[in-house]
Amino acid sequence: MSRVPGPLLSLRPLSHGQAVVAMVGVTAMWSIAGVVTRQLESARSFEVTFWRSLFTALAMLALLLPGRGAGVAARIRAGGALLWVSGLCWSVMFTAFMVALTLTSVANVLVVMAAGPLVTALVARVAVGQRLARRTWWAIAVAGVGIAWMYGPQLAAGDWTGSLVALCVPLAAGVNWTVLHHGQGRGQEVDLIPAVLVGAVLSAVATLPLALPFSATPRDIGWLALLGLVQLAVPCVLAMHCARALQAPEVALLALLEVIFGIALAWLIVGEAPGGTVLAGGALVIAALLANELPRLRRPG
Questions:
Q1: Angle, vertex CA 186, rays to CA 182 and CA 187, nearest 5
Q2: Residue 192 contacts residue 75 (beta carbons within 8 Å)
Q3: What is the pLDDT of residues 198-235, one digit of tens each?
Q4: Distance CA 133, CA 118 (A)
Q5: Buried b vs exposed e over 145-158: b needs ≥16 C-beta within 10 Å?
Q6: What's the whole-model pTM score?
Q7: Nearest Cα to 29, choosing from 270, 269, 227, 212?
């Protein structure tokens, strides 16, 4: 029986306070995607996704290879089918997020993503029969009303493509969590760092044919390299490290800062002001998530 290799990154454990501060930094890095995307000159849609995913994969390799080069391949082999399913989910998230940003506003995309924990709960209920608390059902219903409020005018105008693509992000995240959680219940552990690497590679490979012929300028490629490293690779690794010192509700609540930071940056830097329906619907989504996650923090353990 082959020995499962150790963790790819041996980072110093964080205290709870350090993890909170680091997680705030993670959300700040995540939130730059909208502003950077609006700086692009020629790159559009799938080409944007291809370059960001490619640079994310290269950045992940640069982070991993110096310390544990052989461990990358070993970890991917040890992960088996479960790791590849997780990688596929990550690739859908990476692709849908960037494509959605090229089709609709930053605020629309971020608010839909904020509903991720509630979408995950619903996916887990449907897929594996996980029981949900009454407050979670209410939170899902309220968040659904908020999203409908946001997108009702867009649907009426026939401008729904970007919203539908954005919805793929929390759906893929929900499937990913459910599959991994179910696997853990059967004793199958998956290291998420190589799963993210696999996701970035799959996203780049899948979008390459759709990205051709390339139109990105050197300036565009520079911006997209920044996204691959600073907005995705580094914060993903750091977020997984923070999660070891934080409760799941804390991670979900701190992740909401991405919505606030992202909308504020798009508004202040590129003048992309969110509409009234987006603000009202987004407030309902965030309130629903707060109502669902805060009680979990009061529970011991």
A1: 115
A2: no
A3: 999 999 999 999 999 999 999 999 999 999 999 999 99
A4: 12
A5: ebbebbbeebeeee
A6: 0.84
A7: 227
